[in-house]
Amino acid sequence: MTSDDATFRLVHDLIDSHLTIATAESLTGGLLCSTLVNIAGASDAVRGGVCTYATELKADILGVDRAHLARTGPVDADVAIQMAQGVRTLMGADIGISTTGVAGPGPADGHEAGTVHIACVTPEGFTQREYHFTDRSRTQVRTAAVDAAITLVSDVVTRGHDEPNRVE
């Protein structure tokens, strides 16, 4: 299935299930939300998106714990989970999806280019995944992150979370 097909299927699965989604993006810079709204009818499922590219905005807008950000930096599994929960709450969505990581071309915050954390939060809990899209251009890393986020949300919508988790 092409990424366009996967996005189309996801948006229509959300609509058919009467679910809404909101995006919290860092390295993808709004590309995930833009990809979702490219699908006709997306307004029935997509609540909106927040691009918190600057680290402090993750705390200011999405409520990510400042002490945690100071300890780990923005490229972190728990930061991704908190971003997804924050945007879900902020936008009143059923599903929050977040992307944070290093697009490249070089390393940042102690992480190699291509390191990406994606989290999906629903009322039932969360699923977080870490990816390493190495030896790719900045654009390819960002595109791969969007594709991975769409796959993650699709998996959660169709099969549920990987493990029972709760967002505190």
UniProtKB/TrEMBL annotation:
Residues 9-155 form the CinA C-terminal domain. InterPro entries: CinA-like_C, CinA_C. Pfam families: CinA. It comes from the Bacteria. This is Nicotinamide-nucleotide amidase. The lineage of its organism: Bacteria, Bacillati, Actinomycetota, Actinomycetes, Actinomycetales.
